[in-house]
């Protein structure tokens, strides 16, 4: 009897495994090596706060994770499956744009500068991804958008245009826009850095609510108090690598690395 060849199967992902894994991620722009082997895991429902100096590659890391740019090397696995690439023989090649767009739905991103469409109302901004990317019927998209605006405390501003909203309200619309796609992971890139100080709290409150509801989040931020209170893990990022990664208490009260101590001495 001839032996049948065994199919090589990918290991089965279970909810006990990390929902997102970043492995040996590298990115260069021209001759500048911006990400130099970033590695981390995040489990479902965890909040990871990422701190680090300006220019250290934090935004680049998030853009790669949101599939807005390809990596030069390494991989991003969502529930054990590599994102943004397709296997071709022994090598992997980037997915074509149409398929990338599908995978992007699973990773939400909130930017420092909101990036709302000025000619669309708050509700239309939130609906857009559903109607244009997912072909959800208008009425259903509107209902789902309204539910998300309610969740960020803005259902009474649904008909307002971005210019009629405060920065904090615009950022909450941007959060609703990301949430409505029902992402597996939500990435925040300094979501309160462009806001007047008195508007920061309302955005952090919404984010804390999402964290309490079990949303998996990676938050690049300078808000040390928020990181300490809300995050499950705090990470120091510097020169394109993760320097330290620990629970908030360990990170802030007993940092292991000199680089972390130096960073904290400037922000405390
Ligand atoms: P951070 O968010 O930590 O401030 P960034 O990821 O924005 O850092 O940038 C890291 C480095 O990569 C910076 O030196 C920046 O100038 C460079 N960089 C980022 N994006 C680009 C790009 N699209 N083209 C060229 N250089 C870039
Ligand atoms: Mg940045």
TrEMBL record:
Signal sequence span is: none
The reply on keyword Nucleotide-binding is: yes
> What does the sequence similarity comment in the record state about its family?
Belongs to the ABC transporter superfamily.
Picking any one GO molecular function of the record gives:
ATP binding
Query: Which is a Pfam family this sequence falls into?
Result: ABC_tran
Where does this protein reside within or beyond the cell? Cell membrane
Q: What is this protein called?
A: Amino acid ABC transporter ATP-binding protein
Which organism is the protein's source? Arthrobacter humicola
